Amino acid sequence: xxxxxxxxxxxxxxxxxxxxxxxxxxxxxxxxxxxxxxxxxxxxxxxxxxxxxxxxxxxxxxxxxxxxxxxxxxxxxxxxxxxxxxxxxxxxxxxxxxxxxxxxxxxxxxxxxxxxxxxxxxxxxxxxxxxxxxxxxxxxxxxxxxxxxxxxxxxxxxxxxxxxxxxxxxxxxxxxxxxxxxxxxxxxxxxxxxxxxxxxxxxxxxxxx
Length: 209
Hints:
By secondary structure, the chain is of the alpha+beta class. The chain has helices at residues 10-32, 66-69, 164-170, 201-208; strands spanning 40-46, 59-65, 81-83, 98-100, 112-117, 133-137, 144-153, 157-162, 176-179.
């Protein structure tokens, strides 16, 4: 005859049920309590200083959670774009740091780029265009502090190219800007050099004789 197992006592059944509940709870916590793995994206970090207005320089890619990476650019998003601001090495590059490269940045590698607010009423239609010669003046219709080529024309600003020495002079001032006519625009007279101590005495003496 086949043997039969002895029936479990009520206490044993209660212990078995309790143990089963513990196992189910542990499995539920393990299966459903674990955080979902976050998808990641490779984003760009500058490996060297990137000057504003030049082609992006050397870079590496770093892994970042997809939710955060939406603020930053991937390697394929660099195509056709240049830094709008200087980007220090080690910076994870965001979209706001870049601008569309309408034309090659500065043709002269020693040149500087200046952004100047533009009043569209001072330009004939269709407004400022890359390659236009632009007059920079202290007031509308005034003498030209400089006539510079437009590198990039934006909605409210244009970017012009200047030699570094001129850029250092132009930079701190707010300028009016408009398209230069083909014949050019009158420049401002060179500032007069202040007489140094002792200069002019012989002239004064001669004038008295």
